[in-house]
Amino acid sequence: MTVKELITELQKLDPELHVFVRGYEGGVDDVGIREPSNYALDYNTEGYYGSHEQVEDDELNNKEYKKYTIVKGIQL
Fold this sequence. Notes:
By secondary structure, the protein is of the alpha+beta class. It has one domain (3-75). It has one helix spanning 3-10; strands at residues 18-20, 37-40, 53-55, 70-75. The N and C termini lie close together (11 Å).
């Protein structure tokens, strides 16, 4: 994906969405915008994980996530 294509796609989104990239653990793919999802901020404390964790819609009411700030965001 070129910068021009990325800018075109980003202009379609709410400018208040958070933007995330993969954590340290795992491989990488070409940059592509996925549908907005929920993310628990500052969820992971281990250095080999990214700080934040994606949360599925059906998990939002799970007691485990109640103590975290949940935001909508995209992953590149």
